[in-house]
Amino acid sequence: MLAKHRDSIAFWIFGFCNHFQALLILSAAEDILTPSTDHIHIKSTGIILLSHIIPGLTTKMLASIYFDRIGFIARFTIIISTNVISLFFVGIFTNKYLCVVGVILGGIGISLGEISILALTSSYSKSTIGLFSSGTGMSGLVGSFSYAVLREMRFSRLQVMMAAELIPAFYLITYVWVLGRPENVSKEHISLSSGKLIKNESLHKSSETIILTREEKIVVLRNVFKFNVILFIVFSSEFYINLGLMQSIKFQSIFLSNASQYRFYLLFYNVGVFIARSSIGFLQIPFKGVAIAACIQCMNAIFFTIEVFKQFIPTIWITFIIIFIEGIIGGACFVNILHIVSKESSDELREYSIAVCTLGEDTGITFAGFVSIFAHEMIIRKH
Question: What secondary structure, in 3-state letters, does the chain show?
Fold first, then answer.
């Protein structure tokens, strides 16, 4: 029982640490691109998104091919190192191009972290997927809230990023001292030196390493295609809103500056994400329900596109509520798809299936990044 609680805590911390940096950097996107945040800047914050997500998508695609050739120790070393260097670059440099180098490193770290930890859940209780997702939701909430509040308190970007350097340390501590062996250690053992799942009748007998053939991997990719389509729709819609439209939804003569409005939009969004990603323990949504939610997210994107050009919303509080709902939808689709894939996959294919079912997330975000840059330029010309 104690070991099970330790594993639960470990996966929640993994989710929190893995996504905290990404949300912190995205919250700082406008500050990175424009020293004076109350003036219109020449580039969309979609630039930051693409700098983060394209290296991450590349990492996931390579991992889907060479997934069983990289050990977990090597993976976690890369994850922690890139996170530390990324925060250092984003915090200490004022040159936006050097900051983007830090964003790129962060994208590599978070994607390798996500695909590695999700693969790791296949050897533990199925509840670890929900706990990992809950941790990612909390990281978004804490990341956006802490950045918004600390910047309002006149802390510099450098001070915020240097304080965040503590997060990779928690990552390391959790992996080394908190996470235990899988429940079925007599039959399955995760070799920390090779990173491969080994099936034994006993830990002292000869082992057979499970390495999927190319044909088996193709079958898995075909089976998870519909889930990746849903994730593509959901994440392309919400990140188009977050980084293509949010910075242009501004209310004049209110208690928040233009820059502060953008930070609090992200805060409300991440509150919704956290609530939804923490709900899998008592509320599971079937695939049809997830598909309907994806359609609603598309409607949200259309709604905010019209708002940017027509400016018909009378108060910022309505915007806060709709953005909160956007976060609920995104978080619910993510965690329920992971849950469905885990439940429907066989034991032999579960690790790989969970790992590759998030490719739709990154491809959707990448698509949203390009669209948001185009949309932002159109909005600037319009206004």
Answer: CHHHHHHHHHHHHHHHHHHHHHHHHHHCHHHHHCCCCCCCCCCCCHHHHHHHHHHHHHHHHHHHHHHHHCCHHHHHHHHHHHHHHHHHHHHHCCCHHHHHHHHHHHHHHHHHHHHHHHHHHCCCCCHHHHHHHHHHHHHHHHHHHHHHHHHHCCCCHHHHHHHCCHHHHHHHHHHHHHCCCCCCCCCEEECCCCCCEEECCCCCCCCEECCCCHHHHHHHHHHCHHHHHHHHHHHHHHHHHHHHHHHHCCCCCCCCCHHHHHHHHHHHHHHHHHHHHCCCCCCCCCHHHHHHHHHHHHHHHHHHHHHHHHCCCCCHHHHHHHHHHHHHHHHHHHHHHHHHHHHHCCHHHHHHHHHHCCHHHHHHHHHHHHHHHHHHHHHHHHC
- The residues that bridge with 209 in the sheet, in sequence order, are 198
What's the burial of 277, exposed, middle or buried (CB within 10 Å: 0-12/13-18/19+)?
buried
- Residue 67 pLDDT > 80: no
* Model confidence pLDDT, tens digit, residues 335-382: 999 999 988 888 778 878 887 888 898 899 889 888 888 887 788 777
* Cβ atoms 231, 334 nearer than 8 A: yes
Beta strand 188-190 with 208-209: parallel, antiparallel or unpaired? unpaired
Apex 309 CA angle, 308 and 312, nearest 5:
75
How open is the CA angle 297-305-104, to the nearest 5 degrees?
Answer: 75
Question: How far apart are alpha carbons 69 and 194 in whole angstroms?
Answer: 7
> Which of 96-105, 153-162, 332-341, 347-356 is most confident?
332-341
| Predicted confidence (pLDDT) at residue 201 exceeds the cutoff of 50 | no
Our measurement of the distance from residue 369's CA atom to the centroid of its chain's CA atoms, rounded to an integer in Å, reads 15
CA torsion sign for 60, 62, 65, 70 is negative
**β-bridge mates for residue 189, sequence order:** 198
What pLDDT was estimated at residue 39? 43
pTM over 0.70: yes
How far apart are the C-alpha atoms of 206 and 138, rounded to whole Å? 42
Q: What's the pLDDT at 2?
A: 60
pLDDT at 94 over 50: yes
Q: Is the pLDDT score of 148 beyond 50?
A: yes
